[in-house]
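User: Predict the complex.
Assistant: Input components as received:
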Amino acid sequence: DARVTQTPRHKVTEMGQEVTMRCQPILGHNTVFWYRQTMMQGLELLAYFRNRAPLDDSGMPKDRFSAEMPDATLATLKIQPSEPRDSAVYFCASGLAGQGASNEKLFFGSGTQLSVL
Amino acid sequence: GQNIDQPTEMTATEGAIVQINCTYQTSGFNGLFWYQQHAGEAPTFLSYNVLDGLEEKGRFSSFLSRSKGYSYLLLKELQMKDSASYLCAVRNSGYALNFGKGTSLLVTP
């Protein structure tokens, strides 16, 4: 049963600490997304990659956030230093783009619930 | 940019029909998606529309009017397990999905 795997599921940290979230996309998917979800803003796109290359990270605060794909099976989102306003659920999603159809859906991981105290 | 609007909350009775509306403004349009999200869980795909009209899938149907920038999700024969948040999302000329803030649906006995 193919699925997107995210770790950790929960993270509590103190302001100023570094946070790293990891995502394993579905095998064979070529596009990976990072979203952040809060009650106020809903699901916001932070960054996405196609074939491991960053395509758009305009939604991500550049001074403290960074996203990478070291290889096709791992995507990371790092916050350094973390702040209380970063508290949210961070979702990773993957999809298979470029198949000639626009109906390719995204599959979401279970998310990382981050609390910055 | 994009602007996607949907009601914040709705309540309906078990066995009834409910329609959740979504309006959008976008530069470039390449499909509209509906996702369901139960509390504490990941969003899961429900439906997709790219041409005008109604797409039916069991108890769920989704409608699209591109000229009006309008879609709705229709849920029939409501069940208690349908209590969830319903997210409208638009794909523009890129591949990413841009989501509305979601409609929280409560189904009551």
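Chain A is about 0% helix and 55% strand.
Let me know if you want any component modeled separately.
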